[in-house]
Each structure stands twice: as C-alpha cells, then as structure tokens.
C-alpha cells in the first residue's frame, strides 16, 4: 500500500499541542500506510514524546532555521513530500477520525474543486471567545469560499506547485494570499462532513488583542500581487473607521466641537453595531451581547494598530503556534 497523502506541519515552540495534533492523526480511520507526516521544526531538537510518533504516523522530522517564515517551512516540507495529496496542518489542531477519508472523497468527486477544508468545532467547555472564533470560522459552510485559514488545507501536490507555493515574504496572512491564488485554479470548498478542534484557539481577550496586532502586520503586504474582492475591503477599512472615529470624536469633545464629535461617533458606531449584530446572529445563544461587543471593541483597534506597524516595517514574530 503506497503513500498517497503527505501531512505537512510547521512547528516552533512548545510541543504539547503538537502532540495532540499527532495523536489525532494516529487515530484516523485511514491506515497509516497511506500517509506520511512531515514535521518541519524550528526547534533545535525534538523530545522523546515526539520521537514516539515516528512509527505511529510515519513521522519524518526536518529542521528549519528559526528566523524563516511559516511559509518557508510549509514549502520546505512540501518539497520533500511523496504523496499525491498535501495536507497542510497547523501544529495546534485535532482532526476528526474521518478527516482524511472525507478530504480525499470531496476533492476527488466534487467538480471544479481545487482545495478542501473542514469546519471548526468548539473544544469541550469552550469559553465565549473560542465560541466566537468558531462561529466566525463557520460563517459559510458547504459552499465555495473566497479564502481559507491555513489550519487544515487539503489539495493535490500538482495544484500546490501550480500556485507558486506559499509566499515566504509574509509573516502573517500567508494563508489568505495562498488560498486566493489556489482559487484561480478551482473552488475552495469548506465542508461540514468532517471537523477539527483548534486547540490553540483564542480563549482570553487580552492575549487575543496582542495576537491581532501581530496578525495585522502583514495586511498591506498581503494585498500586493493579488486582486482584492469587494467583500474583503471592509476588513481593512472598518478597523480604521472605528478606531479613527472614536479618536476624532474624543478630540472634538476636547476642542468643544459637539457636532463633529457626534458625526465621528456615528461613523464609528454604525459599522461596530453592524458587525456585532452579525456576530450575535452567528453565535445565537452561545455567547452574550456583551462578549460579542467586547470582541470588536478590542479587535478593531488591534487590527488598525497592527496594520500601521506593518506599514512601518516593524514586523516581528515569536512563534508559529
């Protein structure tokens, strides 16, 4: 039985979530003889706990330089993959046992499909912020989408090579840039027939705020070299409209300009209210209005700040999860 799928997992930092990822691969219904796992580590060495997976999941370990991007690690792993299919995973996801079977079936039977990804589900006892993230991830299900996060992506190796691979110049937003290019070759399909848990999903608001600043730093760079659909523009404009509107309203109050302050507040709060209302519809009764509002109260300023930092070129990263 020959290998038909190569899992590629970039990794840097702690190993506990990675071990959960590899455990979920070991528990797949698909026989292990049909896949290999290529771990591209930016650590100096792997632990004994990780070494135990060498036989369990046909694990191969490559080492990459610490300062290279996550795209570089993905491309490095893909270059040595022997499978017909490539499965790109983040090192903090737990796959459902039918994940690989569904991915292969969907990609091979669905017309004009270039890439498939599974829906996200909450972890047990998920806090409000994780429920929000999961709901946003699943806003569109069982339909073609315009881009996908890189946590679980499944495609033919020939499709990967035809896209020109992952953009190694980007520290963040590389998955959106890559899947946008794949979308030119065929549809991106987000299926509910199988699932994954994002073990490393945001669970607390303060760390989320810091992460969003980091995530926003490649916003401008990710626009170069691709067509930006109309539906994507609000994600760039609204954070500045909200944050700038509040700041200008505050300044107008200081300088005794009440009319200007009201106009600025309305301009800031209208998109904020629209986004919060949409989010509450997605999460339904799982999350309160307060948590939905708090999410965007932090998300918009963090994204605006991160984008500004990225414009200045002061981009840094400490981990690839």
Largest beta-sheet characterization: 5 strands, mixed
* Shape annotation: elongated
- Unreliable stretches, pLDDT < 50, 5 or more residues? 314-321
**Computed CA radius of gyration, to the nearest angstrom:** 21 Å
- In percent, how helical is the residue content? 40-55%
Walk across the major sheet and give the strand order. Answer: 3-2-1-4-8
Number of helices: 12
User: What is the succession of H and E elements?
Assistant: EHEHHEHEEHEHEEHHEHHHH
What structural class do you assign from the helix and strand content?
alpha/beta
CATH architecture of the largest domain: Alpha-Beta Complex
Indicate the mean pLDDT: 91
User: CATH H-level name of the largest domain... which superfamily?
Assistant: Spore Coat Polysaccharide Biosynthesis Protein SpsA, Chain A
Quantity of strands, as a count: 9
Highest-level CATH class of the largest domain: Alpha Beta
